[in-house]
Design a protein that fits this description.
InterPro entries: HAD-like_sf, HAD_sf, HAD_SF_ppase_IIIC, MDP-1_euk, MDP_1_eu_arc. This is Magnesium-dependent phosphatase 1. One of its GO terms (molecular function) is acid phosphatase activity. It comes from Morella rubra. 47% of the residues lie in helices and 13% in strands. Helix 1 runs parallel beside helix 6. It is globular. Bound molecules: magnesium ion. The site of magnesium ion has 7 residues, from loops.
Length: 189
């Protein structure tokens, strides 16, 4: 309880970026906690990866919303653990269900609940197939190897702002092209 180790560092990392996601989405098993919750009992007291809670608190303090996207077949155990860890109220959306799609339907539901567009979301997961599928729909997606940590947070925010800047540049290109069109046809007339 109250273990916010890494929060100060996470706040510093977030402070380095001008462009930030509106919503950060986390997988559960092997992303927020180091186990499959389907293999555990509800009676146990779970623990998170060392910096996970600090990162959640830092995002909260910066006014960034959070959500959960998990394909765990035991949503009841996952929910019990989120409660026991006192982090359940931090999530605006919590989608936990098994599915044949690689979480794209989880993200459709998260979008419906929050109204946040995919290109304003950042996603952390330990399975490459989920990362591949979710990045295709426009969400900046980061593969974690030892759970979510400060390195993954920095990588995620870096990639998010790169994607954002690329999209803005493309938008500008299209606007320029569009606004030049009438002039060039005028010239030809
Ligand atoms: Mg996982």
């Amino acid at each position: 309880m109250g273990d916010e180790s890494g929060k100060t560092e996470a706040l510093q990392i977030i402070g380095m970026f001008q462009v930030l996601p509106r919503l950060v989405v986390f997988d559960l098993d092997y992303t927020l906690w180091p186990f499959y919750c389907e293999c555990r009992s509800k009676r146990e007291m779970p623990s998170l990866y060392p910096h996970a809670k600090g990162i959640l608190y830092a995002l909260k303090e910066k006014g960034i919303d959070m959500a959960v996207a998990s394909r765990s077949p035991t949503a009841d155990i996952a929910d019990t653990f989120l409660n026991k860890l006192s982090i359940k109220p931090m999530f605006r959306a919590q989608e936990i269900f098994s599915s044949w799609t690689h979480k794209t339907d989880h993200f459709q539901r998260i979008h419906s609940r929050t109204g946040v567009p995919f290109n304003s979301m950042l996603f952390f997961d330990d399975e490459n197939r989920n990362i591949q599928a979710v990045s295709k729909i426009g969400v900046t997606s980061i593969l974690v190897e030892n759970g979510v940590n400060l390195g993954a947070l920095q990588e995620g925010l870096t990639k998010f702002s790169e994607n954002w800047k690329t999209a803005e540049k493309n938008k500008q290109k299209w606007l320029t092209k569009f606004s030049q069109k009438p002039n060039s046809s005028d010239g030809n007339a």
